[in-house]
Amino acid sequence: MEFTEFRVTTRVVAGWDLAASLDVELSQAGLERGLVVTDPGVRPLAERLLSASHRLIGLHDAITPNSEVGQVERLAERARDAGAGFLLAVGGGSVIDTAKAAAIVLTEGGRLLDHQGVNVLARPLFPVAAVPTTAGTGSEVTCYAVIRDGDAAAKVIFTSEWLPPVLAILDPALTLGLPPALTASTGMDALTHAVEAYLSNRAGPFSDALALAALETIYRHLPPAVRDGSDREARWHLLISSCQAGMAISWAMLGCAHALAHACGGLRQVPHGVANAILLPHCLAYNRPAVEARWWTLADVMGADPVKGVAALARRIGLPERLREVGVAESDLGPLAEAAILDGSIFTNPREATVEELAQILRAAY
Ligand SMILES: [Fe+2]
């Protein structure tokens, strides 16, 4: 290797009950007049944060899972009307991605879909701070925002060096109450980030270190966190490692599991982590011929054959194993493969996939 690069532009702070000192962190970052962005499920927590800082001016909770273009544009309008100076995203990946995408509209104007494409954004964006309440997406540090285009029944991925939030506050206390199913699915999203970043054809030494550290930690601590949500050690490690995996994918990017998972989320609104958990073992089996040297490192870190290890982990934490169990019809498989071949995540898959090969992976996972 003759060249490598890495950057993390987000200031990351992590600690138990850190959310209580939110005001100090916002002050240090020079952030004022923040609009809190959340979803109805997380609203009580977001209200507590709102009342704990005079740097926050209001709350917007109209965000759903797999959030859509219209929600992003309504959030931007609300922030503009309120005279907000930054967005504080409190929630899971959908909430954080919605805030990041709204920052595009707030900075560049126009409609969200006017700004599609890789690196079309040329200047710093309206600031976003993130308080993740799941240990999954790593969106609090990534250069991506994934938004559903309801009209096209597809996911649109925005990628830019300006998209990472300026501040990420990791407080594992906020994840203690996360239900087992959500802990399981978001944890498998983070694990998929670690695996796909490590096998990516863009992987480098810095992303490798973060990806492998995250994989080892998630693999070990996800089952106890699902079994006992109040396991503080497991919650701490999962939140840190999902953020590490987010850093890894910001450089190394992803692979065919994410390309297919985005397609499943776009067409049938399959929860992102569930789709990844179902697809990853099949994608690993497909990619193996292209990643033989790295395969043994994965096996070493997991202490198991990677395909069997990932499938057994997903089973152990109670996730579905088949696409047919999560609302995907057999007639969807062709359109899903067609959508996945156009997804940005496919370009860094270690094996160059054809539409027919993607359809085979889907059939194997069906
Ligand atoms: Fe993901």
How would you explain this protein's 3D organization?
This protein has helices at residues 22-28, 43-52, 69-82, 93-108, 180-199, 205-227, 232-252, 256-268, 272-287, 292-302, 306-316, 333-340, 355-365, and strands at 11-14, 34-37, 56-60, 86-91, 117-118, 128-132, 144-149, 154-159, 167-170. The longest helix is centred in the middle third of the chain and has 23 residues, at 205-227. The protein folds into two domains: 11-174, Rossmann fold, CATH 3.40.50; 177-365, Dehydroquinate synthase-like, alpha domain (Up-down Bundle), CATH 1.20.1090.10. It is of the alpha/beta class. Helix 3 (69-82) packs across helix 4 (93-108) and helix 6 packs antiparallel against helix 7 (232-252). It has 13 helices and nine strands. It is globular. 49% of the residues lie in helices and 11% in strands. The protein binds fe (ii) ion (FE2).
Summing up helix and strand content along with how strands pair, one would put the structural category as alpha/beta
Largest sheet: 6 strands, parallel
Number of strands: 9
Radius of gyration: 19 Å
* CATH uppermost class of the largest domain: Mainly Alpha
Give the count of structural domains.
2
Bound ligand species? fe (ii) ion
CATH architecture of the largest domain: Up-down Bundle
H/E topology pattern: EHEHEHEHEEEEEHHHHHHHHH
Low-confidence stretches: none
Quickly list its features.
366 residues, binds fe (ii) ion, alpha/beta, 3-stranded mixed sheet, Dehydroquinate synthase-like, alpha domain
